[in-house]
Fold this protein.
Amino acid sequence: MSSPLLDHLIEALRCLPGVGQKSAQRMAYHLLERGREGGLKLSAALAEAIERIGHCELCRDFSEEKICAICASNSRERSLLCAVESPADRLVIEQATGYRGRYFVLQGRLSPLDGIGPRELGLDRLATRLADGEVKELIIATNPTVEGEATAHYLAQLARQFDVHPSRLAHGVPLGGELEYVDRGTLAHAFGSRIEVER
Amino acid sequence: MSSPLLDHLIEALRCLPGVGQKSAQRMAYHLLERGREGGLKLSAALAEAIERIGHCELCRDFSEEKICAICASNSRERSLLCAVESPADRLVIEQATGYRGRYFVLQGRLSPLDGIGPRELGLDRLATRLADGEVKELIIATNPTVEGEATAHYLAQLARQFDVHPSRLAHGVPLGGELEYVDRGTLAHAFGSRIEVER
């Protein structure tokens, strides 16, 4: 018995991650009551982003240009390449670390059962980049999941083919974490790969 | 160093209630990675809703028609009118109760300090409706806040002017709630307005 356009908007809002029926209702009412201007801006930004944002030809990250800003930058170390699964992973590394090299965004991970193989991850393009001799180290920053590990293994082998040194993010107890609450796998790994205390 | 259009989208998503920087990022990446179709639909639904949804001339609820579906319906009791603060309140009453009367949506509550008086709540229009003699009972369903109570008091007086019987939602201990966790004000009210147990 509500307005059909309003129902339609609520339904459409549910495409957002983590937004169910209740949140979508709240968002729709909020936008109509107090945020019409912001809503119009959002509508335009959404349409423009979806229409114009594609993938960088070099690193496969999101970009509205053929080559993204990081790949096009001259101040980035050309000898370092960091492979990540998603643009979101690239963003957190960029924000949290002082990394000044470049990236390669796989846009996924190897998962043969889902039909995601080397081609889908653009590994032919990665091979071309590794082949030209500019890259000296491939930092593999895939997620520590089964598929992420398999992907990392594959990437490491690929790097070695082209005499590129592969490296992985260190695993272990998170900073500020309490041992009591660290999961068993992580703790076992951290224990096994303990490091000698320097003098 | 990210894509400007992507930054713009993330910023625009923050107009949604309860969405901060992190959630906005997650939403933007999700839409670009896996939800482009849904995103385009959302953009269109948003623009259309904001452009075309106005207020019903009778009840002030959201509606793309001059008169909303509930006000236009012939199967609704004409002698009952329920005053609520917002369209969201109307929706929950519609969903939770078997109410078959009509509504009046104040789109706010009396708040003189914020410049919200009877005129802003459309009480002149409410008075016209009460004056024509069709409405016999005005169910006042404002929120149990200070301003909501003040609004309720004002509405009750208005109703009496036109010989309309005002009523309010019952206050008390929520069903399924435990006394231990009910706030003091509610408990005191429920205690004071205790009801004799029927035989």
